[in-house]
Amino acid sequence: MELVYPLVLYIGIPGVFLLFLIRFKKKDTYRKGNKVANADFVEENPYYKKLMRQYKIFGSIAIFSLLLSTWASLVMMSRPVEVETVTEEIRNRDIFICMDISGSVDETNLELVDHLRTVVQELDGERFGITIFNARSVLLIPLTTDYEYIMEMLDDLERSFKESLVMTKYYDGEELTAKEYEILMNFDYEKYYFKYGGTLSDVGSSFIGDGLATCLYNFSDLETNPDRARIIIMTTDNELNGEPLLTIQEAADLCTKHDVKVFGVAPDHIMDEEIFKNAILSTGGGYYKTSDENAYKQLVNDIKATDATIIERTETIIYDQPEVLFVVLVLLMGMYFAFSRKVKL
Q1: pLDDT tens across 14-29, in order?
Q2: Which of 104, 146, 308, 318 could share a disulfide with 91, CB 3.0–4.6 Å?
Q3: Average pLDDT of 312-320?
Q4: What pLDDT shows up at residue 248?
Q5: Domain limits, the chain
Q6: Alpha helices (runs of H) in 94-146, residue ranges in sequence order
Q7: What is the mean pLDDT of residues 249-264?
Q8: Strands, DSSP E only, in the chain?
Q9: Which has the closest alpha carbon to 230: 133, 303, 311?
């Protein structure tokens, strides 16, 4: 046990001792004399002797209780605590989701969102973030360990992808399932446009390289903390429409330069598959096709298998411990009041 404010004891104990010393130093005029004549008979009386013994015992107990309760009060004021130093290992890894939110990738994104929940639920101290892109890239969630908020955002994305898929099938004249028809009848434009906020432009769409590069530089400490393990999970059909600033290979080279592994997930209708696949694999990550029934399971396993930087964090925890002293103080004060009434101190 340690004291946070030991100065209270250094000052309090001598002060209390001094007060008691002054109190008991005071003498009555006839303290050692006989106050009445012929008191020998009374002093020799057995009943008187019994009362005197009780008076001395009860008085001593009362004074001793008062002294101890004063000491207990001073110790409590000194704030007794238990100090514990805890060292724990933290998985020092960042994971970013980079989603192409063009309508042609909705089904892929919808499947991925469901599997990402599993990834998030198993995170422990690792930071997680989400970016979405079309012609422009939007940081939806910066790196955070607020997993509850991440799950809420994944739910919002899932609803938006579902609304978009139903709308696409409806305009293409495809037959809707009963559940899809229900979504259409209760169509929510706010949910539908959630994924499009800030990502659209009249200069083109699906700027794959720009989306990946922007996601890369959303790692907050990319330059200052190069040893941290970083991963990007990217979904796209690589269907470029317009003139981006960077190609997918140039963006992948930037990821390689900063030791960021990219794991790409693509549908069957991906454009220029070999170019995209080679760019992704050049980062040291992995490439997965949604047509493979084990694609998402393999993706999750591969992410778990990547090396996470382990750091040790030492934390000092202070536990206040007034309980025992409080109980002792209550008992001692009870004893004092009980015995002091006996002797009328």
Answers
A1: 887 787 777 666 555 5
A2: 308
A3: 77
A4: 92
A5: 2-79+322-343, 88-313
A6: 106-121
A7: 93
A8: 2-3, 80-100, 127-133, 137-144, 204-205, 229-235, 241-242, 260-266, 286-289, 309-320
A9: 303
